[in-house]
Write a structure and sequence with these properties.
The chain is mostly helical. Among the domains are: 67 residues; 43 residues. The protein contains eleven helices and three strands, in the order H-E-E-E-H-H-H-H-H-H-H-H-H-H. The chain has a three-stranded antiparallel β-sheet with strand order 1-2-3, with helices on one face.
Length: 263
């Protein structure tokens, strides 16, 4: 059997500046994700660790060190004194890159549930290293990528909600992501990044797009119409709009009264 992958690469051309991914059925009958690169491709498992390995008989290195932390806390009564060595942090970062490549491909394939899963996992990795790495450089090595991972996690949550026809939930998710990134920059004294951040720009644009698709609140629209009618001195129109607002208020009050009676 030939080990040359030239035919695969020829049949799947690389597009500079684009991220190209596909899902294929492996020889073992299980789906795989492939990510096309300039000089080849990555092939990843769709669940578990992307390379299919089980370090220390765990789903991932992160899970292994989480078990070690849990055991330490159980034996000593707290997490005080638990440290992850520098070489282990390097291995954890390498593992995080695998998940990064997979959630990038998952996003292209619009598997937003998987994107949320893998970005949440990498955020846990960042938390673990930031808190328990023995060396200061290892504690901060991944923090520079946190805004990007939060952004991807937020986009996945919002797109899932939007797909489920829950635009308000999507907007809540985006606003929460914006707040988390803003808090990150403020924590590290990067106040200029609150206005210059590319991640925040993407999420703000997403929030604006979602807001444009939200159903208009009839009462809010009537109030806007009333203000405009008053400014333009269309007093008869303004009086009619006030009547409509009073009608909405009356109906709202009656519905609450009925709910109270039923309870």
């Amino acid at each position: 059997m030939s080990l040359d992958i030239s035919k695969i690469l020829t049949d799947w051309p690389y597009a500079p500046g684009q991220v190209t991914a596909r899902r294929i059925r492996g020889d073992d009958g299980v789906d795989k994700i492939q990510l096309r690169l300039d000089l080849g491709l990555y092939q990843m498992e769709t669940s578990g660790r992307p390379d299919g390995l089980r370090p220390h008989d765990c789903d991932s290195l992160l899970d292994y060190y989480q078990q070690q932390l849990d055991r330490h806390a159980q034996d000593t009564g707290s997490d005080a004194g638990f440290e992850i060595a520098s070489d282990a942090c390097e291995q954890l970062r390498g593992e995080g890159v695998m998940y990064y490549h997979r959630y990038l491909a998952e996003f292209i394939l619009e598997d937003f549930t998987a994107v949320e899963r893998d970005t949440t996992r990498n955020l846990r990795l960042m938390d673990m290293c930031a808190k328990y790495a023995g060396e200061e450089t290892d504690r901060f090595a991944l923090e520079q990528f946190r805004p990007y991972v939060i952004m991807m996690n937020t986009r996945a949550k919002a797109l899932l909600a939007f797909r489920q026809n829950r635009p308000k939930a999507a907007l809540v998710a985006v606003k929460s992501g914006i707040d988390h990134i803003r808090q990150f920059h403020e924590k590290y004294g990067q106040t200029k990044m609150v206005s210059a951040s590319g991640e925040l720009a993407i999420l703000r644009a997403m929030a604006k797009e979602i807001q444009s698709r939200l159903p208009i609140d009839p009462v809010r629209q009537l109030r806007r119409d009333l203000n405009k009618a008053v400014q333009e001195e269309r007093y008869e129109d303004a009086a009619a709009i006030r009547d409509q607002l009073r009608q909405h208020a009356q109906e709202h009050q009656e519905s609450h009264t009925l709910e109270g009676d039923e309870s």
